[in-house]
Design goal:
Blueprint: E1 2-3, H1 8-15, E2 28-34, E3 39-47, E4 53-54, E5 57-60, H2 65-85, E6 91-98, H3 101-104, H4 107-119, E7 124-125, H5 134-140, H6 161-180, E8 189-193, H7 197-208, E9 212-216, H8 220-229, E10 234-235, E11 246-249, H9 258-263, E12 268-269, H10 282-288, E13 292-293, H11 296-299, H12 302-312, H13 316-320
Parallel strand pairs: 4-6, 4-7, 5-6, 8-9, 8-11, 9-10, 11-12, 12-13
Antiparallel strand pairs: 1-2, 2-3, 3-6
Length: 321
């Protein structure tokens, strides 16, 4: 196990990255490698002014380490805003494990990662994210106590996807009230991009509310499972190009581009994805067209609230009210 064992290219990509020049700057970026398990991970702590940095661990096959650096820096910054906006005594942090979770994820690797988290002494608390599950958090928890969203059987709060989806849905209803004068979604067309854990939970709520759902996902097994579960929804190749009332990005970030801002028919953008705007300038373009964008760190805060509740031993009633 080696902490902060960085190549020169790693250091260059961190210190030259635009997100490292924005105030307030990141407090700490840790590169983690474990030769025995093949672990390559990056932990980024953006800010701990309000408390320890809580943020999920993403397991993803980045094409290059520089891509992983950029993602973890942006994600950790977003967690600072998310926890602050939710009124939680938490800072912002995030971690990424570089690899394909379907191939590279092993119990030994997760335990090794947990030991890295533990070396930070509680400055960073990890949780589930894209490519990781509550079962994974149980394994990580064998190496550290600084972990949230473990399984209920192991004393945790379980999967945060349902609570994240509830937050997105509640945010969408508030936006609908603002735009259309009513939170009624009957007959409204919602484009859900990404039908993973949160996207499917959100779809269930949308259909129950009378909305029409168009969905897209690049992963064929996810599309097939979605189509089987929701035959009343429609799978499309490119949900962003469809005629929409609402665009709900629920996969990876950066899908709200200049082009989308100029061409979409959606009156509302509200989804679970982090870092939805490809650049901050896109927010102005959306505003110029009168499109209401619910900031991702507001819409998807349900997950971090649930993870925080595990640390505070909240009851279900405290969590949902």
């Amino acid at each position: 196990m080696t902490i902060a064992d960085t190549h020169a290219a790693d250091l260059t990509s961190v210190f030259s990255h635009p997100d490292m020049t924005i105030d307030p700057p990141h407090e700490q970026v840790v590169f983690c490698r474990d030769a025995a398990t093949g672990l390559r991970a990056i932990i980024a702590i953006h800010n701990t002014a309000l408390g320890p940095a809580l943020g999920g661990t993403r397991f993803y096959p980045y094409a290059a380490e520089a891509d992983a650096v950029g993602d973890v820096l942006r994600l950790s910054r977003g967690m600072t805003f998310k926890s602050a906006a939710a009124g939680l005594d938490l800072g912002g942090g995030k971690a990424v494990i570089i690899g394909d979770p379907a191939i590279d994820k092993t119990p030994e690797l997760l335990r090794a990662y947990g030991r890295f988290v533990d070396t930070l002494g509680g400055r960073y608390i990890t949780a589930g994210d894209v490519g990781t599950t509550s079962d994974d958090m149980d394994l990580i928890g064998e190496g550290t106590r600084h972990v949230a969203s473990k399984t209920v059987a192991n004393g945790g709060c379980g999967d945060t996807a349902p609570m994240t989806a509830l937050g997105v849905f509640s945010s969408l209803l508030a936006a609908a009230e603002r735009v259309w004068g009513s939170a009624d979604l009957t007959g409204r067309t919602v484009g859900v991009e990404g039908v993973g854990k949160v996207g499917t939970q959100l779809t269930e709520k949308l259909l129950a509310a009378g909305a029409k759902v168009l969905a897209a996902d690049p992963y064929a097994p996810a599309r097939e499972a979605f189509a089987t579960r929701f035959p009343q929804a429609t799978i499309v190749d490119d949900v962003r190009a469809a005629q929409l009332d609402v665009y709900a990005p629920c996969a990876m970030g950066g899908t709200v581009t200049d082009r989308l801002a100029g061409e979409t028919t959606a009156a509302i953008i509200c989804g679970a994805a982090n870092n939805q705007l490809v650049t901050p300038d896109v927010e102005q373009l959306l505003g110029d067209r009168g499109i209401v964008w619910v900031p991702d760190y507001i819409a998807n805060a349900g997950g971090v609230i649930q993870a925080f509740s595990e640390q505070q031993d909240w009851t279900v009633e405290q969590l949902t009210t």
